[in-house]
Amino acid sequence: METTTQPTTQPTTLPTTLPARHPVNIGHLVMGIAFLGLTGVWALVAGDVVEGDDIRWLLPLPWVLAGLGGLAALVSADRRRMTRRQTGWVEPPSQE
Amino acid sequence: MSTSPPEAPTPETSSNGPRVGRDELRDLGRLRRSRQDRKIAGVAGGLARHFDIDPIIPRVTLVVLVFFGGAGLLLYAACWLIVPTDDTQEATVRLDERSRTIALVIVGILAGLALLGDSLGGWGFPWPLAIIGAIVLAVTAFRHRNDERWATPQFGEPSAASPAELPAEAPAAPPAAPMSTPVPTPAAPRRGGPVLFWYALLLIAVGLGVLGMVDLAGADVADGAYPALALGISGAMLLLGSFWGRAGGIIALGLVSAIATAGATVLHDVETGHIDAQPRTASAVEDEYELGLGEIELDLTRVADLQNLDGRTITVDLGVGRIAVLVPQGLDVRVEGGLELGHRDVFGDDQGREGTNTVDGGPQAPVLEIEVDLGVGEIQIDREGDN
User: Fold this and answer.
1) Which of B7, B121, B277, B368 is buried most, with the most CB atoms less than 10 Å from its CB?
2) At A81, which helix (H) or strand (E)?
3) Predicted local confidence at residue B333, as pLDDT
4) Count of CB contacts below 8 A, A vs B?
5) Is the interface score ipTM higher than 0.85?
6) What totals of helices (H) and strands (E) does chain A contain, helices first?
């Protein structure tokens, strides 16, 4: 006797609801901001816009900006993950 | 029962590894970066294992070579990029063994040129050669990737495709079942690894070339502009890659550029040369003589109005080199200061590197104070006629 099994769920509906977005690479973001900042510092020093002791407080600035950028990206990624976790496997009622 | 020891040496399988032969030393394709013995990227650990020496030797050698035309930096960065790790066999820049050996030899020659050029003082780091080498490396690696992508699939081997890429309804076949007719193997999964790195490298090469042309055309281009351009491109590509992905290897590129930028900027700011001052009047005597690298010679014996030097303080500040001061008779001189490393001889006193020395010019003689500050080198201060 042949029996046929009917699929009880629709597995193809789940992936379409998830956004296909590349997660931000925090390490690359931080180093990217730092390198661009250091380039800016070099430009200021080479252009004689900043001289002498002013260079000393300018040098940590790229790293502070990079750290802030990385922190912002981290918080943003965490919030997005939290939102997704709360949505879970339940489909929003508007799509039914 | 035999009491004699075994004659043939058993193969050494301890953690120290077997002794390596000459042929193995020459085979640079066997070089791997060490995962276990690493401080930064495992390059020195890998070199130590390859040459069967203590890891401290390549570490110290590389650090020392950094200060000779950046040869150590070049070697380290190149090995970081093209030498695979010993566990995953993955490298930022994937090359086959033959290409890697050639690339390592080219890098070795470039490092040798940088070392030689710096030692002889004849020429600086061969940037044009380095850029050509980088482009050759990029093209070779790109061709190698294409060759791998279009390589003939091997029949009778387990498929490299992930289960997710196989059709869902396909029955699970025995993994090594021999097939009578060639069946096309499913395409290999998309390779991971850096993509933006190559774009960054080529952009840097093009940018440096354009900057070089602008420089040769007569525009005022600072020395630090070349590595700063590479640094900026690395930063921009990293920023792009942080959102888009596939930006591996660019951090190493940026770090090398950052160090080179800092080095070029600092070297540009260091004043080098030779100060030979023989003032004829007290007003011509400056309050401060300062130099980064070189020699400062100050001869005060020709000053006609010594009384106008009374109460003045002359500062002589030098980073690396030699300070030589000759003071005249008839002047009370007080010398203060010294040096970090080297030889200090003030009025015949050559004991110690710091201190205060005075010489009496007689009653009612004007008083002059000399403050000397030297990093590394020699301080020689004498009074006219004392020798």
Assistant:
1) B368
2) helix A61-87
3) 93
4) 74
5) no
6) 4, 0
B232–A28 C-beta distance less than 8 A: no
- How many residues appear in chain A? 96
How far, CA to CA in Å, does B378 sit from each of B42, B88, B339, B341, B353? 40, 53, 8, 8, 10
Listed in order, strand segments (DSSP E) in B29-184 are none
pLDDT at residue number B2: 43
On the CB side of B57, CA atoms within 13 Å amount to: 9
Q: Is the pLDDT of residue A19 over 60?
A: no
Span B123-182, pLDDT tens digits:
555 555 566 666 666 666 666 666 555 554 444 444 444 444 444 444 444 444 444 455
Specify the 3-state DSSP secondary structure of B370: strand
Between B203 and B87, name the one with better pLDDT.
B203
Condensed to tens digits (0 to 9), the pLDDT of residues B105-133 reads: 888 888 887 777 665 554 555 555 566 66
A50 located within any domain: yes
Strand partners, B313: B369
Domain span at A69: 26-84
Asked if A69 has any chain B CB less than 8 Å from its own CB, the reply is no
Total number of domains in chain A: 1
Task: Assess B250–A contact: CB distance below 8 Å, yes or no.
Answer: yes
Q: Which residue has the tokens 């075994």?
A: B6
SS3 state of residue B369: strand
A25 part of contact set with chain B, CB < 8 Å: yes
